[in-house]
Design brief:
Blueprint (H helix, E strand, L loop, with lengths): L11 H8 L6 E4 L6 E5 L4 H20 L2 H17 L1 H12 L8 H17 L5 E6 L2 E9 L2 E5 L5 H14 L3 E5 L5 H11 L8 E3 L4 H9 L5 E5 L2 H10 L6 E5 L4 E5 L5 H13 L9 E7 L3 H12 L20 H16 L3 E4 L15 E4 L6 H4 L6 E7 L2 H8 L4 E2 L1 E5 L3 H8 L6 E4 L14 E2 L2 E2 L4 H6 L2 E7 L1
Parallel strand pairs: 5-6, 5-8, 6-7, 8-9, 10-11, 10-16, 11-14, 13-14, 16-17
Antiparallel strand pairs: 1-2, 3-4, 4-20, 9-19, 12-13, 15-18
Helix pairs in contact: 1-4, 1-7, 3-5, 4-5, 4-7, 5-6, 10-11
Protein name: Aldehyde dehydrogenase family protein
InterPro entries: Ald_DH/histidinol_DH, Ald_DH_C, Ald_DH_CS_CYS, Ald_DH_CS_GLU, Ald_DH_N, Aldehyde_DH_dom, LUC3-like
Keywords: Oxidoreductase
């Protein structure tokens, strides 16, 4: 096997062979079956130090390239991902649990290539601020240096690319720490990208929390990009403060959707379903609490139940499945606890709610829960799994007040046959993104970031590039 752009891995086992340690390592288990997928290296603080040193040494040369030259590398990296797409997708399915089909593993790998190409295409020219008889002032963006990227386990490859692509495009070098739950997916992706990227510009360190904390604290790391829980984000903010690092924090959400009384329940049911249950509900900006007007409440509940019945859940390598297991036991327990809280309060289980204790893997059935109070834990806390509470409301003011009541605000959505009315309601919701008649539809051209405790900083598009650069004004 050669390290050229044309290198392809025929199977995921071939890819595993080059990323696993020769000896030792930590077993990674398939959450659908409990079988061993492979062994993840257990990198140490010394390994992290070596990666940061190498990234720092490579940065001046990488940063000296033009935007066009760096974009060329990103496009070739996208070619490499596409050439190895099936091996990457199977590895992802086995480690994370998501099925190959539907908006899942193959979709995620395709999104990696698409995001690389989109990021390569953005133009970022100096902005002329003043140009008159008093003089001229220009706003430029320079590389920051070494960027540390800490990723999650739910979309490990795609969110990894969301972090590394703009960082590299802006002339930074990158040290990535994947989640300890899904390290193999990210290590495999980084190996494929490094088939075409210059040596030293991109590194992955698969370590524990001690390694992650050191990455955050390290004086030679200029910026941290993090996607994960609000509590973990708060710890990163504290631990990075002594070095005054730049931060992009995409933190937890509990996205609300508001269905207005003029919506067509059948027409919106499928999009509502995937807004909530994409990646089996394990998505930061998934629809996690649905508010439906009393006039169409039962119609929406019935329409969602009919869609849910058509969506098979099972082992990801079975081509028929579109929903998979929860990725880990801790998340399974959270979902089970919150669903039980809804049952204990007398909420109506429309479908699901009773996992099979004899089934292997962390499968929790697709669950719709109606007639639930807004203060029930399933509504007030982020479930991050396949259980959607559906809350009835009487007035739009009431729905907006409930949607805004929590301290998070990553995304939200409004569903209506009247887009102008929907836009008016959307403007009243406290969230970084509000979609109309869709939910969670991120676009590499459109900036994305949270409000309130869902984080700060923007990703995607030209604005996302700017957050990976040091603003510099030249005035003369």
């Amino acid at each position: 096997m050669t390290t050229e752009a044309t290198t392809t891995f025929t199977t995921y086992e071939d890819l595993l062979a080059v990323i696993q340690p020769a000896t030792g390592g930590r077993d990674i288990l398939d959450p659908a079956t409990g079988e061993t997928v492979g062994q993840a290296p257990q990198h140490t603080l010394d390994d992290l130090e070596a990666a940061i040193t190498a990234a720092r040494a490579a940065q001046p040369g990488w940063g000296a390239l033009s935007h066009e030259e760096r974009s060329g590398f990103l496009n070739r990296a996208a070619d490499a991902v596409e050439a190895n797409a099936e091996a990457l997708a199977v590895l992802l399915s086995r480690e994370q649990g998501k099925p190959l089909n539907g908006p899942n593993a193959r979709f995620e790998v395709g999104a990696c290539a698409a995001w690389l190409r989109a990021t390569a295409s953005f133009e970022l020219e100096p902005e002329v601020l003043v140009d008159d008889e008093s003089g001229r002032a220009e706003l430029h963006y320079r590389p920051l240096g070494v960027v540390g990227a800490i990723g999650p386990w739910n979309w490990p490859m795609m969110i990894g690319v969301w972090q590394l692509a703009p960082a590299l495009r802006m002339g930074n070098t990158v040290v990535m720490k994947p989640s300890s739950m899904t390290p193999l997916s990210v290590l495999g992706l980084i190996h494929v990208l490094n088939l075409v990227l210059p040596e030293g510009v991109l590194h992955a360190v698969s370590g524990d929390r001690v390694v992650g904390n050191r990455l955050v604290e390290h004086p030679d790391v200029a910026k941290i990009m993090f996607t994960g829980s609000t509590e973990a984000g708060k710890a990163i903010i504290r631990n990075s403060s002594d070095t005054v690092k730049r931060l992009t924090m995409e933190l937890g959400g509990n996205d609300a959707g508001i269905v207005l009384p003029d919506a067509d329940p059948v027409a919106i049911a499928q999009d509502l379903f995937w807004g909530a249950f994409i990646n089996t509900g394990q998505t930061c900006a998934a629809l996690k609490r649905l508010y439906v007007h009393e006039d169409i409440y039962e119609e929406v509940v019935v329409a969602l139940e009919e869609v849910a019945a058509q969506m098979p859940m099972g082992v990801g390598l079975d081509e028929a499945n579109v929903l998979g297991p929860l990725q880990n036991k801790a998340q399974y327990d959270i979902v089970a606890h919150l669903v039980q809280a809804a049952k204990d309060a007398g909420a109506r289980i429309v479908t699901g709610g009773n996992p099979d204790p004899d089934r292997p893997g962390y499968f929790f059935p697709t669950t719709l829960i109606a007639d639930i109070d807004n203060d029930n834990p399933l509504v007030a806390e982020e479930q991050f799994g396949p259980a959607l509470p559906i809350v009835k409301y009487s007035t739009v003011d009431e729905a907006v007040e409930m949607a805004n009541a929590l301290d998070v605000g990553l995304g939200a959505s409004v569903w209506s046959s009247d887009k102008e009315t929907a836009r008016y309601v959307a403007a009243r919701i406290e969230a970084g993104t509000v979609w109309i008649n869709k939910h969670g539809a991120v676009d590499p051209r459109v900036p994305f970031g949270g409000a309130k405790a869902s984080g700060y900083g923007l990703e995607f598009g030209v604005e996302g590039l700017k957050h990976l650069g040091q603003p510099q004004v030249i005035s003369y």
